[in-house]
Specification:
By secondary structure, this protein is mainly beta. It has a 22-stranded antiparallel β-barrel. A 5-stranded mixed beta sheet has the order 10-16-17-14-15. A 4-stranded antiparallel beta sheet has the order 3-2-5-6. Residues 113-219 form the TonB-dependent receptor plug domain.
Length: 800
Amino acid sequence: MRVIILMGMLFSISLSMAQKVTVLDKTTFDPIEFVQIGSKGAQHVAITNAKGEADVSAFKGLNDIIFKLYGYEPKEVNYETLKANDFKIELTASVFMMNEVVISANKWSQISSDVPYKVSSLSPKDIALQNPQTAADLLGTSGDVFIQKSQQGGGSPMIRGFATNRLLYTIDGVRMNTAIFRGGNIQNVISLDPLAMENAEVLFGSSSTIYGSDAIGGVMSFQTLKPQFSKDDQPYVKGKAMMRYSSANQENTGHFDVNVGWQKWAIVTSVSANKYGDLRQGNHGPDDYLKSYNVQRIDSVDVVVNQEDELLQSPSAYNQVNLMQKVRFAPNEKWDIEYGFHYSETSAYGRYDRHLEVKGDEPKYAEWGYGPQKWMMNQLSISNFSDNFLYDQMSIKLAHQDFVESRIDRKFNNDIRRNREENVVAYSANADFSKRIGKNNNLFYGLEYILNDVNSTGIQENIVTGDVTASASRYPQSQWQSFGAYINDEHKLTDRFTLQAGLRYTHYMLNAEFDNSFYAFPFQEAKLNNGALTGGIGGVYSINEKTVLRFNASTAFRSPNVDDIGKVFDSEPGAVVIPNPDLSAEYAYNFDLGITKVVGNVLKLDLTGYYTLLENAIVRRDYQLNGADSILYDGTLSQVQALQNAAVADVYGIQAGVEINLSKGFMLTSKFNYQMGEEEMDDGSVSPSRHAAPWFGITRLKYNYRKLSLEVNAQYQGERAHEDLSVSEQGKSDIYALDENGNTYSPSWYTVNLKAMYQFHDNFTVSGGLENITDQRYRPYSSGLSGAGRNFVLSLIANF
């Protein structure tokens, strides 16, 4: 009996010595991880686990127990109040955050109030509610990035009047741009899986000091799921499974990810599979966007067949699969090692805008599509935390990427099918360092090496006889290399003023060998061996706790790549672009000024103005080949053109944002973007820039209560009149609407959308929405594909 009493006493003592508190989100009731619990009266600091739990026995009897976590309002209670509330406490999410954590500005975690650049972030909660089908759609939900689409299997971002190879993509800190990123629209961003994202950031403006070539208009930084360790002896297991259906393209998506973590090892596995049918456009809008026919091969003849549903954009269907596997190992507090494997593959898919082209009264093409787009990346990341003379933190990233893409086309009633395939193998090595010098100075510096091997092939097949012969490739066999070194210093001059300045030198080399079997080029090879020096200076001044002023002046460059130097392609009917081995880098000079102001707990305003000047711009101009200004290309006498350093361009505009706390769970937010761009022409005249989109934005009314999130939003774009279109766009009657004078223009448009998410069980959440409620037929500027008509979206998520 004494033994039983003694055991009971020990059990009671152990309970009192290990009293757990549970911290919950006041709105969602979800447990909050990483909450810091401290007190002036105790040296001990506790951190909540994934269940929101922490041991607060050390705080017994204290009157100033403080609960803190970035993104939440701090809360102070005494121990007796905590006990009276059954050791449960609720934290309120901050309505307006002036100090978000961002990593895109210098590759390290940094408080946004110390960053002179404008940065737009998308959190996991944002991504979950918006439910984007692709990574391009994910960027579009930010309200700060304009997305152009030539086909459903695509999405080409436009940022501050720049696009394609004048923007930079990074995935887990690794450069994704390759030596064949072109000036026309590119679709590589769809290789990334939005369902495997931890967060995404867009850094606006010239950023070559940190990122090197291509970072002229901005940087899109994607961070995928990171393996998480267990904080105790038990394995930490967390994951989700999702199924989604969308009516406008008969989408069927399945996704699964799981994290298993131990104290020193952790793994993450993610799998997504998507199946998209032809995209249906809206019922109310310009008839110019309708295509009521398809081309079918019947009895060895191409035949134009009427389409039953003229709202269906065919061919635009495709499938995609994404895989990701990560392994993380941290032997101690100083080392963190992670290996990541990524793989993405699409099916073949039609380039819809090419199927809109006609020649006389017949379609120009019977076939025009992309072969499977494949991307694979192996990455090894090694981080070290050490207080030594050289650095406090070191990050080494080694990456190998493999890109495969192809183009397949055949003219209407032509038996010859052309297939050109490109394979780029990219290697990169980055070493980045961070060192704190004194209390007020942070130094960031690093080295980078990039190598791209480009292999391009071309064949043509007679679809009647089956004969296959070699044909001209799209690119020469090439190798592109880049070496870079940078240093960036952040100095806190006063409590209110932080100054940043940096320099980078990049040396780039290109070797290309041309096959003159198909074209009589007056050269057999092209070589580049040159360097670029870029830099920037910027500052952040906190006028007070609620008002922050940012300014930044920086330079950027883009070195000529293989696509610039060596591509042969038909840019438009009757014109052919040929290689030009005499290109040099283009340079950008960027200035921007921004202010963020919070008024009470009710209003947050954000306004940024910018101006970018691009010199030595690489643009397409008329050219000559062996003294001739026209050559016979693909059976058509075509004007010879080439990319040349022949222009000056500039872009200016504003980015504005407003957030209004309407209380009782309601929030009104709006983003608005306005930009204008001009480009110098051959004759000295000026043309509007092709990639400066019309004004656009998104306005949202949000409501959050407990497990329910609701949003009604409107997305919109302004009109671009014929005279305001780029000269290169004015003749594209196949993708633009026609005004009352028969001239091309891009009409204004809007969509009204409803989003909802409800957690009806601890492990289950239903998410859905009704998009384009009024069934508008609209086509985003410069796109060849119309947006989705009225679209019902439903997804079921199981969390474990």
